[in-house]
Amino acid sequence: MRAHNIGLIILAGILATLPLVLPNSFYYDIVIRMAINAVVALGLNLLIGFAGQISLGHAGFFGIGAYATAILTTHFGWHPLQALLAGAIGAAALAALLARPIFRLRGHYLAMATLGLGILIAMVLKNEAAYTGGPDGMAVAPMSLFGFQIEGEKQWYWLFSANLLISIWACRNLIDSPFGRALRALHGCEVAAQVAGVDVTRYKAIIFVFSAFFASIMGSLTAHYVGFVTPNVADFFYSIELVTMVVVGGMASIFGSVIGAALLTALPQALATLEGWETVAFGLILMLFMVFLPSGLVPMIATRFGRRG
């Protein structure tokens, strides 16, 4: 049995047994947020780790999904699933429209372009107060699937757990496909990939659209889970957190995204007792990771045991 299949089975076993040991709704909430961040980080890792492109505004697509479902269900009476799909298509369409001009850029120019995109989306969400509620945010209607309303931490836990497992399976199969091999080729050397017949710009655009679609869906589900949404969901700092999750867990590692998301979602809770110094401690821990484990946790462990992440 292949290593990634074993990893998926182990993760499924952990998710199945966690409800037996989680003491209250607070811990359910932390695990749910880990799963949310893990799925968004998975999509971002396809872009950064496998395709070798940077995005510093990815929270913008998360915000599009969150506000699409909030606005369409609240102001226009759409069904939550219709709103979720519309938000995902809208985010993907925006990514497709901007992908080719953005990915003609390289280095810090590309970083600044994606950063500007994220900031622009956040500004729109704050300024269009008639629909978004402005900086104060807005309430979101409950989520329903096939006539059943999802409520309570346990129901949301199982929904996000299933979503995480399906996302890992989908990403793993994508990476093992010819498309995934083309992504790794352009990450290694774009010139060599072009010589081998890879349409570099097209592949960059497709994976950018795919990762935006991922982020928007999770934004919509998160909005329904929380029941309230503010422009902070598209904040620049959340984009940086997502990139950090990818880097700490390990770029070009599927399970690295999951580990990085779990660690960086739980870490602020563990540091909360430091009363004002938690941000300093958080930054110090991240700096140490970058200095001593630049390849990330999972690739380091995989290298030591002779396996890929």
Number of separate helices: 14
Beta percentage is: under 5%
User: What's the CATH architecture?
Assistant: Orthogonal Bundle
Helical proportion, percent range: over 70%
Assembly type of the chains comes to single chain
Query: What is the strand tally?
Result: 4
Uncertain runs are: none
What is the global morphology? globular
pLDDT average, as an integer? 90
| Global Rg | 19 Å
Task: Describe the structure concisely.
The protein is mostly helical and 309 residues long. 74% of the residues lie in helices and 3% in strands.
Structure, described:
This protein is mainly alpha-helical and 309 residues long. It has a single domain, classed as ABC transporter involved in vitamin B12 uptake, BtuC (Orthogonal Bundle). Helices cover 74% and strands 3% of the residues. It contains 14 helices and four strands. The protein has helices spanning 3-17, 25-50, 59-74, 80-102, 107-127, 129-132, 153-175, 178-188, 190-195, 200-226, 236-249, 254-271, 278-292, 297-305; strands spanning 138-139, 143-145, 148-150, 228-229. Strand 2 (143-145) and strand 3 (148-150) form a beta hairpin. It is globular and about 50 Å long.
Question: What topology emerges from the helices and strands here?
Answer:
Blueprint: H1 3-17, H2 25-50, H3 59-74, H4 80-102, H5 107-127, H6 129-132, E1 138-139, E2 143-145, E3 148-150, H7 153-175, H8 178-188, H9 190-195, H10 200-226, E4 228-229, H11 236-249, H12 254-271, H13 278-292, H14 297-305
Antiparallel strand pairs: 1-4, 2-3
